[in-house]
Design goal:
Elements (H helix, E strand, L loop, with lengths): L2 H11 L1 H16 L5 H24 L6 H20 L2 H21 L9 H6 L2 H28 L2 H37 L1
Length: about 190
Amino acid sequence: MNPFQVAKPIVLDLLAAIGFAAVFFIARNGFHIEGLHAVYCAAAAGIAIGLVQLAAKKIANETVAPLQWLSLGVVVTLGVMTIALHNEHYIKLKPTIIDLAVGSFMATRDWMTPYLPAGVRENISPRIIKNTEYAWAGMMILFALVNIAFAFWADFAVWAIYATFVPACIIIALFFVQYLVFKRMAARATAAR
């Protein structure tokens, strides 16, 4: 299984949050929508994507994964609050709330196992998987703290660039590193048998 096949279920479960970030970036940079209006567009898109995904899963009688519930809940709750509050500081602190929610979720659940290929689950120690989950949780909490600094000490444009790209690029890079490390560990364990 290649890394893109492994990433697909995670990306689909986080599609509402990804849609929010993508629409925000496109609205600001592609259509030059300024200020809070770009955030309103992104919030509406994230809510719509999440609700359409949920409806599609329910119609198809498919199970909604816990990470997808978290993504939908965070996007809908924070999206509605964004539209209602009209407050730039709140908007800049939203990634902190999201990262803390995701980090807490990752620290308290066996969230990674359903996304791992069977060969990895069978050949890597559950302790290693659990420690990796805790490392991901710690990283999300660190992102939350760094976002606070950017929210208070950077202007909106700098914060938007940081919040849209830096955590996402780090997460994508580390996902591929983890994929390669786990694949190598599983291959060694299989060869040792």
